[in-house]
Write a structure and sequence with these properties.
five-stranded mixed β-sheet, 90 residues, 7% helix, single chain, disordered C terminus, mainly beta, 37% strand
């Protein structure tokens, strides 16, 4: 069984567009929460794009930017992201 999502509008399976895109996940206030890798898929007919197949674990969280990762905020800000907003349950 194939687990690729299907475009509701076109009834076609989404096709891989780019593997390994950085996704910046935001909390409900619009602040950076964490970064994860995922894949970008596109409907071959209507060209609608989605982000799918998120990694099991965050690459890093906001509080780790200058601590454990060795990444400075300047390096972080140079990366181009797809942005996904999640609801803050806390």
């Amino acid at each position: 069984m194939d687990n690729k999502p299907i475009c509701v509008k076109c009834n076609r399976r989404y096709q891989p567009l780019k593997n390994g895109v950085y996704v910046k996940v935001l909390n409900s206030k619009g602040d950076f929460y964490y970064m994860v890798m995922a894949d970008e898929l596109m409907c071959p007919v209507c060209k609608h794009k989605i982000v799918f197949g998120f990694g099991n674990k965050a690459l890093f969280y906001n509080h780790e930017l200058n601590e454990n990762t060795g990444k400075s905020r300047q390096e972080y800000n140079r990366i181009e992201f797809n942005e996904v907003v999640i609801e803050d349950k806390g």
